[in-house]
């Protein structure tokens, strides 16, 4: 009803209050796009192209290859890949079998990957060659992907030249394989397309396990069904009524292994038969070079990407006027970046909000002049929001008063993998999920995040959970205790800073501790600096008060 959803007045013309919740598995979206636009370019990887018909054929062959490896419905299959065509093919091939995709960051350390692989128990992992030796012994079957196989022919030939640049690029893209590892390209090439009569998934089947720290630092597998993912793709599609089926070009600079990149650059893009320009990492020059070849129309990203890209475009007098829509998430979007980007592109840049447990998008600014810079926007179609009293979640706060934001909708997950207690802590009766964020709703339904219950750090669009970093630093022989916090950074939104207490009789060498941390944590998780203190502030029950640690650091700056 409109009277309890004041935000509906902000919806642009053509955006429905509710979506038709999907009744078919996510694989139906790919099938429909292949049928409607077989000759449309589906994937562009550094100039090498794949049509939707070719993508469908590769998915069918990959699914059969995985079936012959004994992958069955419900089995978990680990994907540890950067953005590349093989990632897209593997994702849909696993789903075609009714199996479950588990996405992993290929830059994770051996310990980080080992924890997740043990937790979900996948027996098959499809991984980048450079990760293969890292996970050796952690899964039964390793299927290694050669990124260079997806390059245009001229670039593949250039890599064979006995020149320093070619050797350097080969070293960056390729890696040794452990004994027994299989080659993805050979498996797919040798397979016949899977029989059409092979049973596929149902809409309520699990499609994806996406690891997240939730409201704590221990990584947990969020269970997302085909319905969750297909619903969020549909919500994202209708949120931008100007999108043209078979007529858009999405830039996948966000990693597909991240929930944000997966939904916008993979599932939503495939649903509307968009061309997906895959970039293995964000690099402003790489984006501008691609834009000359295949101009983008839809560009999801995070604020630092827009800032760096706008600067590079101005410096090189590059044309980005083809970008009609851009959606920013993962961290606050400064008004200055919006102004610069929109002046450069003449398109809209809006801010949205989501969490892994909600597939992930739940809130966004209207894709119109009604958008409101500084706000995360209004709830998506078929999404309900409550601002609840933190001390009594059954009680709603008055408009304009802060409270914990609760969400409900078809995109909300069904729980954490094998963690019923953690699930019960965030999923409430009626399908509501606790976000852990303190928000305020205006009288017209716009939402603003004012605080975080969870002391999560968001740096460069990635979540860093302080307790995970603290657990690593406490193992250093010179460190007795530590508190990890996020401090404001113009470049990445927040930077990770650790405040440590030296072990008895020890002296902390900050640079040595930093090097030690970088060897054991992914780059974005490792602290940018170490501060040393005599003691950490604690509550009456002995809990370190991270918020006070952060405030003390800010006061000193």
Automatic annotation (TrEMBL):
<dbReference type="Pfam" id="PF00501">
    <property type="entry name" value="AMP-binding"/>
</dbReference>
<keyword id="KW-0436">Ligase</keyword>
<dbReference type="Pfam" id="PF13193">
    <property type="entry name" value="AMP-binding_C"/>
</dbReference>
<dbReference type="InterPro" id="IPR025110">
    <property type="entry name" value="AMP-bd_C"/>
</dbReference>
<dbReference type="InterPro" id="IPR042099">
    <property type="entry name" value="ANL_N_sf"/>
</dbReference>
<dbReference type="InterPro" id="IPR020845">
    <property type="entry name" value="AMP-binding_CS"/>
</dbReference>
<feature type="domain" description="AMP-dependent synthetase/ligase">
    <location>
        <begin position="32"/>
        <end position="417"/>
    </location>
</feature>
<dbReference type="InterPro" id="IPR050237">
    <property type="entry name" value="ATP-dep_AMP-bd_enzyme"/>
</dbReference>
<dbReference type="InterPro" id="IPR000873">
    <property type="entry name" value="AMP-dep_synth/lig_dom"/>
</dbReference>
<protein>
    <submittedName>
        <fullName>Long-chain-fatty-acid--CoA ligase</fullName>
    </submittedName>
</protein>
<feature type="domain" description="AMP-binding enzyme C-terminal">
    <location>
        <begin position="468"/>
        <end position="543"/>
    </location>
</feature>
<dbReference type="GO" id="GO:0016874">
    <property type="term" value="F:ligase activity"/>
</dbReference>
<dbReference type="InterPro" id="IPR045851">
    <property type="entry name" value="AMP-bd_C_sf"/>
</dbReference>
